[in-house]
Amino acid sequence: MRISDREQSRRNPVLLAALLVASLVVITAYYREGDAGLLHRARSATLAATAPLSRVGEATSRPFRAVGEWFSGLTVSRKELERLKEQNDVLRARLADLEEARQENDRLRQLVAFAEEQRLTQLGARVIGRPTSSWEGAIVVDRGSVDGIRPGMPVIAPQGLVGQIETVSKHASRVRLITDAQSGVAAMIQRTRAVGVVRGSIDRTLTMEYVDKAKMPKVGDVVITSGLGGVYPKGIVVGDVIQVDARRADLYPRIVLRSRVPIDELEEVLIVLGTVPADAGGSVE
């Protein structure tokens, strides 16, 4: 005979109540008996029997849990990488600014040291315009009449003589380079003390004219300003001798120089305002 669903639903509460009563009896007996009781021994035996199965299950599930953790961490890592990338970009920009400031400080320190050694009063200036063609022999600096700049003032760099102020506006000045074809510098060969005039050319080549053949220079000799004529202070490096040609038919030898000043890389210069008096104690204004 088939038991109807209605009759089966009636028996379920009775079974559930019986199970609850049995559970309470077992729990009460478990907590009331000692550690050596029957229920405690049965629990220990059950744990011992199921421990190997637990270890196998844990070892089997470990790779799957590791993969899940890796994928979970991957999402976090991508967000973290984006944040770190932004921080890295900021730090790289700051580092570039600091490096630029360091290089500028080094250049300015060299300029000031050079001016102090030459006992010159000077005014620093930045190069804001370079030659736009190979035959243009001038640069533009950011100092003008409001800064006390006047035409004729010498312009120098740590490597040596740059040129001379040619024209002046209120906030800028044009500097004619010593390599310009219209430039002329009273100079002397440092080793022999022979004097002459250094002139520029269209291709920026420097030549020294009117040097006595009796005091012929050698390749590698240093040429400095002689101070004659009062335009340039004495002792500023003009360049190095790279070629000497003394033909018998010529009255003077042909001497070719190379300037030490890297015009295409020049960023700061000094405009010479005057010389420091001998009793100034070595200070530079």
Describe the structure.
It is a single chain. With 285 residues, the chain is α+β, with helices and mostly antiparallel strands. The protein folds into two domains: 33-117; 121-275, Thrombin, subunit H (Beta Barrel), CATH 2.40.10.340. It has helices at residues 5-32, 38-117; strands at 120-129, 138-141, 154-157, 160-168, 173-177, 184-189, 195-199, 206-209, 222-225, 237-245, 254-258, 268-275. The chain has a six-stranded antiparallel barrel. It is rod-shaped.
Q: What is the CATH topology assignment of the largest domain?
A: Thrombin, subunit H
Strand content: 25-35%
Give the uncertain stretches in residue-range form: 276-285
**Gap from first CA to last CA:** 123 Å
Proportion in helices? 25-40%
CATH class of the largest domain: Mainly Beta
Q: Main sheet, how many strands, which sense, barrel?
A: 6 strands, antiparallel, barrel
Class per helix and strand makeup: alpha+beta
- Gross morphology is rod-shaped
User: Mean of the pLDDT scores?
Assistant: 77
CATH superfamily of the largest domain: Rod shape-determining protein MreC, domain 1
Q: Give helix and strand order, one letter per element, not per position.
A: HHEEEEEEEEEEEE
